[in-house]
Structures are given as C-alpha cells and as structure tokens.
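INTERNAL TRANSFER SHEET
From: sequence group
To: structure group
Subject: ADP-ribosylglycohydrolase family protein

Please process the attached sequence and return the structure record in the designated field. Keep the field labels unchanged so the import script can parse them.
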Amino acid sequence: MIGAIAGDIIGSVYEADNIKSKDFLLFSPDAVFTDDTVLTVAVADCVLNNKAYAGTLQEYGRKYPNAGYGGTFISWIFRPDPQPYNSWGNGSAMRVSPIGFAYNSLDEVLAQAKRSAEVTHNHPEGIKGAQATASAIFLAREGNSKQEIKTYLSRTFGYDLDRKLDEIRPMYTFDVSCQGSVPEAIISFLESTDYEDAIRNAVSLGGDSDTIACIAGGIAQAFYQSVPDSIVAEAKARLDADLLRVVEQFERKYR
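Return from structure group:
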C-alpha cells in the first residue's frame, strides 16, 4: 500500500494549488501525509489485527485530528456511537487499498471493501468507489491486463473509462465525490507507463490531487509490482514512527 501513501504525499501540495501539467517536482519540501494516509494505515491495521473498522478509524482520526478530514468525518471521529452518514465522498476509496492487496479472492475483496466503506460512506456511490478501487488493485496484482481491468470495472460499476486524460484535464475541477474522482484516478492508471507516470497523470488533472493520486498509486503499485526505491524512501521518511510501523508490518505480511 506504499504506492497509495506515496501518491497522497506527492499530491498533498497540489490539492489547494492545482497544476495542470505532468511537469512538477515529485516530492516538494512541503509534501506531507494527509488524512488519506492516516486512514489507509487504519484500514491496514484492521486487516492485520482483525480490528473493527469503525472503532479503528475513530482511533486513528483522534490521534491525527489535523490531517485534513472532511467536516462530517471529523465530527464522526468523536461520536460515542458512530453511525454512517450516507456519504458518497471519495474518502471510502482513498483508504481501501490494503484490502485489495490482502485478500485472496475477488469476492472477499468486494465484501471487505463494502464493510470498510459503509461504517461512514453507506451511500451506494461511496460503497461502489471503495469496491472499484479495491477490485482494481486485486485484479492488477493477479496479473490481469489493463484492458481486462478496464472491462471489469466498466461493466461492474458503470464507470466511463473510455475518456482520455487530455479530454478530462482542461475542464476538470475539484470534486470530492467517488463518482467524480474514482474514474479519473483509474484512467490515470490506465494511461500510465509506470508507477511514477500514474502519479503524474493523477496530479496533472487538478482537483482533489492527493486523493486521486492515492487511488491511482495503489492500483499502479499492484499492476507494476513495485514502487521505485527512491519514491518509497521519500514517502517513508515523511511518516511518523507509528504509521511507519504498521506500513512495514503490512509489507512483511503481504509482500
């Protein structure tokens, strides 16, 4: 899942200052992990230690309260009896990558993605975004071609993946919905030539740059089977000890 985390960190500086080009400094000195990374690690902790999704997301959210969550989620973190709030936001998709890497059948991946999403994002689009992202990662790591992945996602989730980045980029604006960012992240992967290119594609669209790059980065890592060592080192250097410990435990178990 380091591919998703690196995408978040790289994109973090461009969320509020969009860039419509692939020509940018990969790791800005100001690049930091955001809520995408925190909650991705929380889901990894759930997978590793069979923890409940709702309680663990709250635990991590309270530990990192200034990571950049949406307003409704930040309120949810501190509720004594947290209930889902029918969200279709892309938060369900940006945190789901560990599930795509960990489980050994597509049915398991779809079921766990739904479980991880619906504690907050129980709107059909919120669940769909998580399942599409996790299943793309699973299919990629199982050796499916880009065309096979595209066909499955289009038929199963109804996303229009025939658009090109050059068509999307000029008019694309900030969109935190699953339906308005998950397909764009998938297309960023589909048009890529390697992991780094997928991240550059995602950031170049503008919009919710860190989340689009996070989603695309997880899929790209699974498909290309690795993340360049230099990118891994830069990303891990920006994590604190507690987050890094879970990331490395997950890598050891699911490599």
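Handover comment: The CA atoms of residues 44 and 98 lie 5 Å apart. The chain has a mean pLDDT of 97.
Transfer complete.
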